[in-house]
Amino acid sequence: MKVLLANPRGFCAGVERAIEIVERALALHGAPIYVRHEVVHNKFVVDGLKAKGAIFVEEISAVPSGKVVIFSAHGVSKTVRQQASQIGAIIYDATCPLVAKVHKEVVRKQKQSHQVILIGHEGHPEVEGTLGQSDQSANIALVETIADVDKLTLDNKQLSYTTQTTLSVDDTQKIVNALKAKFPEIKAPKKEDICYATQNRQDAVKTLMQDSDVLLVLGSSNSSNSNRLREIAEKMHKNAHLIDGASEIQTSWLEGVNTVGVTAGASAPEILVQEVVDCLHDHGASEIIEVNGTKENVHFPIPEQLR
Ligand code: SF4
Known about the structure:
With 307 residues, the protein is an alpha/beta fold. The chain has three domains: 2-11 and 195-290, 4-hydroxy-3-methylbut-2-enyl diphosphate reductase, catalytic domain (Cobalt-precorrin-4 Transmethylase, domain 1); 13-97, Rossmann fold; 98-194, Cobalt-precorrin-4 Transmethylase, domain 1 (3-Layer(aba) Sandwich), CATH 3.40.1010. The chain has ten helices and twelve strands. It has helices at residues 13-29, 43-52, 78-86, 97-111, 125-131, 146-151, 169-182, 196-208, 224-235, 270-282, and strands spanning 2-5, 33-36, 54-57, 68-71, 90-93, 115-119, 140-143, 159-163, 214-218, 239-243, 259-264, 287-290. The strands form three sheets. Strands 10-9-11-1-12 form a five-stranded parallel beta sheet, with helices on both faces. A four-stranded parallel beta sheet has the order 3-2-4-5. A three-stranded parallel beta sheet has the order 7-6-8, sandwiched between helices. Helix 8 runs parallel beside helix 9 (224-235). The longest helix has 17 residues, at 13-29. The protein starts with a strand and ends in a 17-residue tail after the last strand. The mean pLDDT is 97. The structure holds iron/sulfur cluster (SF4).
């Protein structure tokens, strides 16, 4: 059995920055510190930070006054920001700069009196944060599917769209096409909102699965970009499994398999990939090959107060 490792895979610049912010805040202020929502959607990472003294909460109301609060990489609404200020929290913002860019775009478009249409998954924290940049919910509409586009009725003729950063590139293009067909005047974002890391990891899986029989994706079930990687393999009619670690691999998945593809979502650390490689080695894998792919050298600085 052969193992092909996707490139690039695993941590993106936004995730590295978010984790570093939590670690540095812990070092500076001491435990406990509070993190609003899982700082990144990965069980291994979150469990590790919990062990160091981070407390993850869903609502600011669960944070005592005057404590350290960190906003997760997915970003937060204006209301959450206000709530944190009102309790006198020491705030560090781990919102990925590429999500913050989308927030700014929403605010800018609404200042121009545009109706914004957000393409994204209902209930995902990034989507809630982006919807929450609008002062009036009537000025921003969420669509998840082409059927949602069909149902849209809008009075405002000044329209713009924006997207969640971690969507399927191919599915999003279909929704954008439907929007353009229905509203030919609709304005696109200045620059693509789906982020470089999402795009590169999806391209890498498409390449990898041309030569692999099955795909293992390291990533937690609530990780949007990890789920999209699994779906790409499934659309290519290959079996694919989203796993939090090597212990979840089932022997039956490897029966009759010549080549296993392995990748990791943007929030899954490389150590988990190496544990999977070791496990596959124990299952008889004789060759481990790093597939060539796009080189990434994106880095986002952490807030000045934590440098
Ligand atoms: S996946 Fe993209 S948007 Fe999300 S944290 Fe990483 S770089 Fe930022």
